[in-house]
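Reviewer comment 2.1 asked that we show a complete input and output for one of the modelled complexes. We chose the pyridoxal-5'-phosphate case, as it is the one discussed in the main text.
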Amino acid sequence: MKPPKKSTKTVYLDYAATTPVDPRVVKAMQPYWTDLFGNPSSLYRLGVESHMAVEKARQFVAGVFSCSPAEIVFTAGGTESINLALFGVARAHKNIHGKKPHIITTQIEHHAVLESVRALALEGYAVTYLRPDSEGFITPEQVASSLRPETILVSVMYANNEIGTIEPITQIGKVIEEANRKRITKGLPVITFHSDACQATGFLDIRPNQLNVDLLSINGSKIYGPKQVGCLYVRKGTKLAPLIYGGGQEKELRSGTENVPGVIGFAKALELQLAIKEKELVRLGILRDYFIDRLLKKVSNIEINGPEIVKNNKVKYLRRLPNNLNIIIDGVEGEALILYLDSYNIAASTGSACSSTNNDPSHVLLAIGRTEEQAKSSVRFSLGKDTDKKKIDYTVNVLHFLTELLRVK
Ligand SMILES: *Cc1c(COP(=O)(O)O)cnc(C)c1O
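Response of the prediction step:
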């Protein structure tokens, strides 16, 4: 087979790792670096202007969430929001009737959740890791049957970053709400429900009241906003201890001078994404379906990881992120393929970006029942704003060529 002609431009297919910042976001942030640089806590006009800008952004974000501005805590990104949620709830509940509190999460969470929970387990907190089915789904029944009198926290991600599975958050929230109603009469602690929505923000409904969540983690870097900025939605009345102590900013939950340009950029990114959300959901879903169709026709022995890809949105509820494709290419090593793809100016990844420094097989793929070998032959493509049919056609051709090349070896 003849090698395909190399694209001179980068074909970026790793939007689940991070997104480029939209130029309009950069423009909105610009004045807050140099001209409007005041500390929001200062009393003079320059400070007040910064304060007002942050509060205006907070109001906007609260509008998107359909919540009160007082329920939005700005943080330094998804990982920090998640740490604040998990350690915050844990620190607020040292023990329950003499017993160490219990936390429920899943085997397929992002490392930000898994490593936080692991640290809490080392401190003596009891942890249950729910096992997903072969498509990555957790059921409300699994959550219900794992609840204990000492349970204080349930953390289930909204959409998986590796295989795109969309978890039934609303239904899980309902199960927890029902349990809480009974627990109050028994003098048991109220269970707090957290969801990591970093991958969901760009496509799905993120209103906490629709999702029945108490805590929701969001970041800017997956929605064409700046990195190291995000927010945690904290439902009024949720018991939460801070992670970072100091001047008492962000209602004493996140001290430190506010990242004013970051917050402005995050709000702008949310605004822009909101405007294109539904259109992109359909457009990228069609492109992703086209991608897998073409690939299955050209390359043999490919298997899809994650929820079945159902055409023309023939399902009642979206079960998989529209921009996610994760496949096993039998007989090809994933990491080698990523490097070969890079030589063709295509950026993709093996599972999650955070585990790219070690060669361990993806914990998500193992949890859904894949073997180590299958996991190591898996690659993830995630589509975004700049993805079009031409780029997909090019990628399919390159993949066709590279599979033949690598399989022969
Ligand atoms: C990216 C991501 C995070 C981490 O967010 P950062 O802003 O990089 O700290 C957490 N969870 C999920 C599902 C993600 O995709």
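The chain has a mean pLDDT of 95. We note this here for comparison with the apo prediction described in Section 3.2.
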